[in-house]
Amino acid sequence: MSDAVKLAMFGGSRTVGKQDVSKALVGWPVVTDQEQDALRGVLDRGLFTSNDAGRGEVSALQQEWAQYVGTQYCAAVANGTAALELSLAALDIEPGSEVLVPALTFIGSAAPIVQRQLVPVFVDIDPVTYTMDPVAAEKAVTGRTRALIAVHLHGLPCDMGALRALADRHGLYVIEDAAQAQGAEYGGRRAGSLGDINAVSLNAVKNLPTCGEGGLVTTNDENLHERVVLRRQFGEDLRPGRERDYISRVLAGNEKMSAVQAAFTRCQLSRLDSDSAARDRVVRRFLGRLSALPGVIAPTCPDDRTHAWHILRLRFDPAAAGFPELPAGQFRAMLQRALRAEGVPLQSYQIVPLPGQPAFQHLGVPIADYQVSMAVIDESVTLQRWHLNPNCGPVLDLCASAFEKVWARLDELAPLAAAMNHRPPWHQVMSGAAR
Ligand SMILES: *Cc1c(COP(=O)(O)O)cnc(C)c1O
Q1: Fewer Cβ atoms within 10 Å of its own Cβ: the N or the C terminal residue of the chain?
Q2: Whether the predicted pLDDT of 425 surpasses 90
Q3: Beta-strand (E) ranges in 68-208?
Q4: Cβ(275) to ligand 1 under 6 A?
Q5: pLDDT band for position 240 (50/70/90)?
Q6: Inter-CA distances, 234 with 131, 167, 228, 240, 244, Å
Q7: Which domains are seen in the chain, by residue range?
Q8: Average predicted confidence (pLDDT) for the chain
Q9: Helix (H) or strand (E) segment spanning residue 220
């Protein structure tokens, strides 16, 4: 058997070699002369803080993001988690009230609920979109529910029509967690403008990054906006033109953004649409090749929205691949090993439904209530980061070739997968009560 055909996990050569993967192709964020000049400009002008009286980078970014998504107001803050926490704080919900949040998302979607002394109520996801299932959400509503957090997981806007209708029926606020979906659209409107109050993260790994940490909160409600602004800065009124009075009108911490962060993101925002379009082309080509392989379930995008392709989740169906007796978790685990050996950096993204996180286990919510999330976690893997760079086409082409190589030799892998002593990803964090 030739080396190129032999699987890398059995000693053949890797499909995606280290020499194929350069920073110019897969580095993220992409840093150009535009960013270099903008950051030098901040240093030269010396306006470093967000209290720039409307003259500096933070004010400009706020205006540009509000205009980009189509909302009246935007407040720049320290990070995406702070953006969600301040959004919840602005809504002024009675402590102990319940807030719906999907069971499969980043901890940053749910931790702010507890920080605000509210109760997270986890909702299972839809098996196709991987976002909150509106039917499950309806069932989770109680007399104490006050809000829901609509997370556009992996960059696909969630079913906002159904969630908005549900929120209206029950008098709930909708808080958008668009941390993974900058630039995506739902029904012709941009993510970051779809809820009553909306949060994005500008963390360096996101589709609209800064060179560090940052976040943005948007709304059309002047009251909510003012409350966010007050709470990001010690409860002080620091409006341009006013002398600082050091009066804290509410108890609040410091969650402001700095000028360097804003300047970097402004450059990225000027390229967001062209970067998103380029990414859409290469990712669709990659997913097209994968979809041709029986048993690969590639992410899809309903017609009424666009996908930011922040994370690519690939799920596997052993029956469709010709191995109906093979448990799907074992099939996934074996494919993950074989494909990683070929040089495809497949990773888990979230290894347990949120109520199983050690930080949430005291709530006593069994993860078994989240069957769709559990199956998705066990039967799928993700590709993160590489594909964010619009120049990553050649690398994704090699990744697709690795899948094709492995698929041509599934007969060698299936017996090994069947003999595996399989432990689902959550095994390492589950103990006792909440299991
Ligand atoms: C990244 C992320 C957050 C938190 O953003 P940070 O800027 O890292 O605090 C929240 N929710 C989701 C879905 C995220 O991906």
Answers
A1: N
A2: yes
A3: 73-77, 98-102, 119-123, 145-151, 173-177, 185-186, 189-190, 197-201
A4: no
A5: confident
A6: 35, 31, 11, 16, 12
A7: 8-28+272-430 (3.90.1150.10), 33-270 (3.40.640.10)
A8: 96
A9: none
Q: How far apart are CA 279 and CA 273, in angstroms?
A: 10
Cβ 208 vs Cβ 183: under 8 Å: yes
Atom of ligand 1 nearest to the CA of 109: 11
Q: Identity (one letter) of the amino acid at 359? A: A
| pLDDT of the residue at 242 | 84
Question: Are 214 and 76 spatial neighbours (Cβ–Cβ below 8 Å)?
Answer: yes
Please state the atom number of ligand 1 nearest to the C-alpha of residue 213.
Answer: 7
Cβ atoms of 159 and 131 within 8 Å: the answer is yes
The residue whose CB lies within 8 Å of the most ligand 1 atoms, and thus the one to mutate among 28, 77, 79, 81, is: 81
268-311 pLDDT per residue, tens = 999 999 999 999 999 999 999 999 999 999 999 999 999 999 99
373 close to ligand 1 (CB < 6 Angstrom): no
Mutate to test the pocket of ligand 1, among 88, 107, 109 (most ligand atoms within 8 A of CB): 109
Q: Is the CB of 151 under 6 A from ligand 1?
A: yes
CB of 210 sitting under 6 A from ligand 1: no
CA distance 161 to 159: 6
Question: From the alpha carbon of 215, which atom of ligand 1 is closest?
Answer: 7
Read off the tokens for 183. 């630039």
Ligand 1 pocket member 203 (CB < 6 A): yes
CA dihedral 366, 367, 372, 375 (to 10 degrees): -140
Give dist(CA 77, CA 309) in Å, integer: 24
User: pLDDT-derived band of residue 224, with 50, 70 and 90 as boundaries?
Assistant: very high
